[in-house]
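job 3f2a | input accepted
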Amino acid sequence: MAPFTVLHVCMGNICRSPMAERLLDRAVRDRSGESGLVRSVSAGTGGWHEGEEMNPPAARQVRARRGSADGFSARKLRGDFIDEADLILTATADQYDYVVALRPEAADRTFVLGEFGRLLAGIDAAALLASEAKPEAVHARGTAIVEAAARLRGSDAPQPGDDLDDPWGRGDQTFQRIGDEIEDTTVPLANLLIP
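job 3f2a | predicted structure (195 res):
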């Protein structure tokens, strides 16, 4: 079985989604002491930057937070990326709409990042499957977390504050704020996935 796969989506795949990809990976490693329990990947709704490295201020934020920017290559979102993902986290509600337009059946496992962070706080960890630091156990627990978040969301739309601002072309201070907002979701997700 493939590891629990989280797909992060933004517009160009050089700032927000690669930061989220690498910061979730780091949060999982911090929690478990190993990688491979969660597959954290990203893509952009546009292909303008395909093949490019992470934007330098984004890479600085990832490294400052003990993550790795090495080996990153931007890619354009495709339907098969959505199909492979157990959880899709978009930077904005517009990108949520883009994902769901491509794959309507992915709606229950697609969330705006800030929305998912809010919903995580309402999930009863004691009601989830027990877990251990093994890929199949983390996958089962991750699937249960996504289902619980979808139930909590119901038919509610994301809130305006759930979107991540686009930091492209802005200074390090903006990238630092975006990094903080990303970790407001990725760290609690890692903690819930690997208790």
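job 3f2a | The beta strands are 4-10, 38-44, 87-90, 110-112.
job 3f2a | closed
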